Amino acid sequence: MTDAQFTQILSKYLPQNSVNEVVKKIKTDAILLKITPKRKTVLGNYRPPHRQNGHQITINADLNPYAFLLTLIHEFAHLETWKKHQNTVRPHGEEWAEMFRREAEIFLQKNIFPKELAQAIRVYLQKPSAATCRDDNLYRLLRSYDKTTEDYTELEKLPENSLFRLEDGRLFRKGEKLRKYYRCEEQTRKLTYRVHALMLVMPMPENIEPS
After folding, report:
1. CA separation (Å) from 9 to 44, 46, 61, 142, 161?
2. Cα–Cα distance for residue pair 153/150, rounded to 1 Å
3. What angle do CA 197, 96, 39 make, to 5 degrees?
4. Sign of CA dihedral 141, 16, 22, 57
5. Last residue of a domain, which of 96, 113, 143?
6. 0.85 cut: is pTM over it?
7. Which residue of 36, 48, 84, 142 is most buried, as measured by CB atoms within 10 A?
8. What's CA 10's distance to the chain center, in Å?
9. Is residue 133 domain-shared with residue 189, that is, in the same domain?
10. Other residues' Cβ atoms within 10 Å of the Cβ of residue 90
11. How far apart are CA 160 and CA 173, in angstroms?
């Protein structure tokens, strides 16, 4: 694949003014970047060199451009941490956090992120975690750039005791709030789950039957 073709592909997933910097980073570190279908448990993943394979990063294809870039920066930080410390430090310890701040600053200085989002990222970077969803403000702002259908809304916006479906089709009833989650009952097996307040759900009428 030529550089022009690679740049064209990345332009479909990244903010346009970030593509050249990302391409430079990928070429410098000889990163194998894989864009994968949506995964429920992770947004991205980094694998260090092993045998004949070099650095590998996977990113979910369904992320909006700003979430895609921030996830990629998260994985760049893992790569830089491995280069300096290999497997001698915790995956999301202070060494990784420092690398994350350094890698993010490269893009923040270029004003790639909208002002409000950039401010939220800087706050998050003071004490970054393994998942951006742990920072409610940043998570909401990132989600505001998603392309979603009007049928879905955030769980926290529904009245208590409402029925809703998740993306996988399961029907739930919303219960009491537990900090960042709601206690919700799955209607087929009557099992109780914690569902994140910012989860996108489909509101359902009261006369709906469990599938």
Report:
1. 18, 20, 12, 22, 44
2. 7
3. 45
4. positive
5. 143
6. no
7. 142
8. 17
9. no
10. 10
11. 8
> Residues 30, 63: one domain?
yes
Task: Specify if 127 maps to a domain.
Answer: yes
Question: In DSSP terms, which residues pair with 196 in a beta bridge?
Answer: 181
- Digits of tens for pLDDT over the chain (211 positions)? 777 888 999 999 999 999 999 999 999 999 999 999 988 889 999 999 988 899 999 999 999 999 999 999 999 999 999 999 998 999 999 999 999 999 999 999 999 999 999 999 999 999 998 888 788 899 989 988 987 666 888 999 999 999 999 988 999 999 999 988 999 999 999 999 999 998 889 999 987 767 6
Whether residue 187 is found in the same domain as residue 94 = no
- Locus of tokens 């955030």: 154
Q: Which two tokens stand for residue 153?
A: 């809304």
For residue 142 the two structure tokens come to 């990132």
Question: In this structure, what token pair is assigned to residue 32?
Answer: 């194998």
Which two tokens mark 86? 């290999």
Q: Which residue has the tokens 């893992």?
A: 78
- Residue range of the domain that includes 76: 3-143
User: 85: which 2 tokens?
Assistant: 């410390």
